[in-house]
Design a protein that fits this description.
about 325 residues; mainly alpha
Length: about 325
């Protein structure tokens, strides 16, 4: 009995969180490396079936709930790099005669939704480039189907991938995808919808875990804020976002999401992001609209800093 009792503390010892994170991150990296090797071999052999099998297994590592946001980010970037080769393979396969709509349907047979959606976004970008379907329709399909991933971290990174993959394929003014592929209004709607959903997921991160972990969650959220903010950068770079479009559509919808999310971290960061990424001319002509949102922010938001940065921007 004594020897059993002596063994219990060792068996029931609390694992060091950092060591456990390193272990889980290492296992995930090894799995990605292994499956990406087999995926590349299948690509070299022109074997679509095996390429999809191993890419799906590789993407399955992004289903994990065991990693902290920084470690998940590192894993995501490894997977992102590997997906670039898969995208080229899809494009070459289509060029060699495969029907892209059939490929779009084929990847939807992936058994788990996270790998399925990454594969759909990858094929979807190829689909848009072929112009066999309007960019507007493919973008709308993808941004809607991404709703199937509602876990805050997994959903946030999935939508970040969607935004990165499609940012050069939007039917902006002067783009090759404008016209039959859609209008700049479609491009704006896609980015705003993705922005709104990403912000909701980002805010929901705060509600995960125990109340005692609040400070840690806030730190992790701040580390991921740029994933959400990149959508505003994309909007600011669209040639078709004129002052009229900005004042009538972009700014009102962005401010609506900022106010309605009722989250201090999101409100402070996004108000500052709006001030920094859009032009001085836009701010001068929409100053009243922007200022009307300030009193609607949560009481803990540092409004003084926001106003100072706005004044600094306009005075520059």
């Amino acid at each position: 009995m004594a020897s059993k009792a002596a063994a219990e503390p060792a068996n029931g010892a609390v694992k060091d969180p950092e060591q456990e994170q390193q272990k889980q991150a290492g296992l995930a990296r090894e799995a990605v490396q292994k499956q990406s090797y087999y995926m590349k071999r299948a690509i070299d052999e022109g074997n679509m079936r095996d390429a999809l099998k191993h890419s799906s297994a590789m993407l399955g590592e992004l289903r994990t709930s065991k990693l902290t946001p920084p470690n998940y980010y590192e894993l995501y970037m490894r997977v992102f790099d590997e997906l670039q080769m898969l995208s080229v393979f899809f494009a070459e396969d289509v060029k060699n005669g495969r029907n892209v709509s059939e490929l779009y349907e084929l990847v939807q047979h992936a058994s788990h939704i996270v790998p399925r959606m990454y594969l759909l976004c990858t094929v979807g970008s190829v689909y848009i480039q072929t112009k066999e379907a309007p960019a507007r329709d493919v973008l709308k399909d993808l941004v809607e189907m991404c709703r199937g991933v509602q876990h805050p971290i997994r959903g946030l990174f999935l939508r970040s991938y969607l935004a990165q993959t499609c940012k050069k394929l939007l039917p902006d003014v002067g783009s090759e995808y404008e016209g039959a592929g859609g209008t700049v209004e479609d491009a704006i709607d896609f980015v705003l919808q993705n922005f709104t959903e990403m912000n909701k997921l980002w805010v929901r991160m705060q509600q995960q875990g125990r109340a005692t972990e609040r400070a840690g969650r806030e730190k992790e959220r701040r580390e991921l804020r740029e994933l959400v903010g990149r959508n505003l950068v994309v909007l600011s770079q669209l040639d078709g976002v004129t002052l009229q479009a900005y004042s009538s559509t972009v700014l009102p919808r962005v401010l609506e999401q900022i106010v309605n999310c009722k989250d201090e971290i999101a409100q402070f960061y996004l108000m500052d992001a709006v001030i920094q990424v859009f032009s001085d001319d836009f701010h001068l002509h929409t100053l009243d609209t922007l200022l009307q949102a300030v009193p609607q922010l949560q009481i803990g938001v540092d409004v003084v800093t926001i106003m100072n940065r706005l004044m600094e921007r306009l005075a520059a």
